[in-house]
Design a protein that fits this description.
The structure holds two protein chains of two kinds.
Chain A: H1 17-23, H2 29-45, E1 60-65, E2 71-75, E3 80-84, E4 93-97, H3 99-106, H4 112-117, E5 122-125, H5 127-140, H6 144-149, H7 156-170
Parallel strand pairs in A: 1-4
Antiparallel strand pairs in A: 1-2, 2-3, 4-5
Chain B: E1 3-7, H1 11-20, E2 24-27, H2 45-57, E3 61-66, H3 75-88, E4 92-95, H4 98-107, E5 113-115, H5 124-134, E6 138-140, H6 147-156, E7 160-167, H7 179-184, E8 200-205, E9 208-213, E10 216-221, E11 236-239, E12 242-245, E13 252-254, H8 259-264, E14 269-272, H9 279-298, E15 316-317
Parallel strand pairs in B: 1-2, 1-14, 2-3, 3-4, 4-5, 5-6, 6-7, 7-14, 13-15
Antiparallel strand pairs in B: 7-13, 8-9, 9-10, 11-12
Helix pairs in contact in B: 1-2, 1-9, 2-3, 3-4
Classes of the chains: A alpha+beta, B alpha/beta.
Protein name (chain A): Sterol-binding protein
Organism (chain A): Bradyrhizobium nitroreducens
InterPro entries (chain A): SCP2_sterol-bd_dom, SCP2_sterol-bd_dom_sf
Chain lengths: 179, 326
């Protein structure tokens, strides 16, 4: 569990277009395996996390980082994650924001309503399901550095340090709110 | 020093509020008995018991909001919420309904009662009724009063007064507003949801994002135009008098600059709105007001930054506290 350090909404960087362009030809399967593993691990460590989804536990969420050339389809029950080039039709809800804002939201470092007010977060589809997901995640106090690094066995410590350093650069690492 | 009363929609937010310096946290059960009955939000009975124990261990108090109005056919749901909050160790119950106050005063005579803002008790006579009849110790004043009016009411009341200092604004007679009911059949007063998300849609159009409530188009925002909550009171409408915000602009209350006036008015406690907000909001806003109160107490200049990023419509107002329209 991490101690949340609030980041000021509206100030987080986006992935430069050239970097996004360079990522376009990359195969999606390795990323899907890593992120799918992270989701499974989060689910195992926080079995009650998705209780807050209530009747929306089986909803399919499409998550699109607006500055990356791929997107995610996430299901809570059973926990499942797919990495796709384009979001398919038939999803219950779609959530779009910059990649860093999405990461910050996952860790509860930014406020979802504030991102909506500043138009940095776009929601379409079942708004109730999205709110339930947001509240479930916010209560879980996820620490992605811990979740991701745990997949790398003996390399976990350097992976964790690298993740925390990147996060500090992108989101801010101090526990002091930057209101 | 005035007390800082902070919102929590989840146990994690409650812990954030305590870490950031809350004197007390207000929260509710995950059902229709509280006025922030949104999906994925609020506390199970077990979470409430554990959170109250944790707060007490950290020197903070927990006020349980049971501030919707019971349905005639299901009063027992509200009675059970009162009984469970008392047995969980709540420091006070925040109630709006007269019948529920009567039940609580009779069934749990030693339980401290606060009058919810949903009761819209906005004058000394109304407050005296709650204090004398049910033993209410504090009233949360509606957000329609100026600071001089708050001072006058506080002076004439036996009750402590609590006022909002930050967050969403309801300029309607609180607990009486039917706008959400009109559009969706659900209201904060009965079901605990203003503009229920099940009835909200966002549509991306060539002209921008269109928000609708219960099938009624209520606003359209250009790509970078700041937005507000999808409530009818903050909708933008075309009328014979022109197009615009008919009821109120999408702005948040921020009374940081009025803390001295509120203290001088005799206010006991300052309340931050936002049980529906995330931990980042709770952490930042609570810390902001904790610093501002410390500066007020020491007579120093508060070194605090703007809360604008957290405000609805990216704008703030002093609301009725500084009435300019009279």
């Amino acid at each position: 569990m991490n101690d949340p350090s609030a980041a000021s909404p509206g100030q987080l960087p986006t992935i430069p277009p050239l970097v996004a362009l360079a990522m376009r030809p990359l195969p999606l399967l390795p990323l899907q395996l890593v992120l799918g593993g992270v989701l499974q691990r989060i689910h195992r460590r926080n079995p009650a996390l998705f209780d807050r989804l209530g009747p929306h536990a089986r909803a399919r969420f499409g998550i699109r980082p607006i500055d990356l050339p791929f997107a995610f389809v996430v299901e809570a029950k059973p926990p499942r994650l797919s990495v796709v080039r384009d979001l398919p039709s038939g999803l219950d809800a779609r959530i779009s924001a910059s990649f860093v804002n999405l990461l910050a939201l996952l860790e509860g470092r930014v406020d979802g309503d504030a991102l909506m007010f500043s138009r940095e977060l776009v929601i379409e589809g079942d708004v109730e399901a999205v709110l339930a997901l947001r509240n479930a995640i916010d209560d879980a106090q996820l620490d992605l550095a811990t979740e991701v690094s745990s997949l790398f066995g003996p390399l976990g410590a350097p992976v964790r340090r690298a993740f925390e350093a990147a996060r500090g650069q992108l989101i801010g690492s101090s526990g002091q709110a930057s209101s | 020093m005035m007390e800082l009363i902070c919102p929590a929609g989840t146990p994690a937010a409650l812990r954030s509020a305590i870490d950031a310096g809350a004197d007390a946290i207000y929260c509710g059960f995950n059902d229709e008995t509280n006025a922030r009955n949104f999906p994925g939000l609020n506390f199970s009975r077990d979470e409430m018991r554990k959170s109250i124990a944790l707060a007490h261990g950290r020197g903070a108090r927990v006020l349980v909001a049971i501030n919707t109005f019971p349905r005639a056919s299901a009063v027992e749901i509200w009675h059970r919420a009162v009984d469970d909050a008392v047995s969980a160790g709540a420091d006070a119950l925040i109630l709006a309904d007269i019948g529920l106050m009567d039940y609580t005063a009779r069934r749990h005579p030693s339980q401290r009662l606060h009058v919810s803002v949903q009761a819209a008790a906005a004058n000394p006579d109304a407050i005296a009724f709650y204090a004398e009849t049910f033993g209410a110790k504090r009233v949360v004043l509606p957000r329609v009063l100026s600071v001089p009016e708050i001072a006058e009411i506080t002076r004439e009341s036996a009750c402590e007064t609590e006022v909002f200092v930050f967050g969403g604004l309801c300029v309607m007679a609180e607990g009486r507003c039917s706008l959400s009911s009109y559009a969706t059949g659900k209201s904060p007063n009965m079901q605990g949801v203003c503009s229920p998300p099940s009835h909200v849609t966002y549509e991306q159009t060539a002209e921008g994002t269109k928000s609708s409530l219960g099938g009624f188009a209520i606003n359209r925002f250009a790509a970078t135009e700041p937005a507000g909550y999808p409530t009818l009171c903050k909708g933008r409408f075309s009328t014979a008098q022109g197009a615009g915000y008919i009821f109120e602009d999408p702005v948040s209350l921020d009374a940081t600059t009025l803390l001295k006036g509120l203290r001088d008015a005799g206010v006991t406690a300052l309340k931050i709105e936002g049980r529906q907000r995330g931990r980042a909001y709770v952490e930042s806003v609570v810390r902001h007001f904790r610093h501002a109160l410390a500066a007020l107490e020491s007579g120093s200049e508060a070194d605090i930054a703007s809360l604008k990023p957290f405000t609805e419509g990216q704008a703030s107002t002093l609301g009725a506290y500084r009435k300019t329209w009279r």
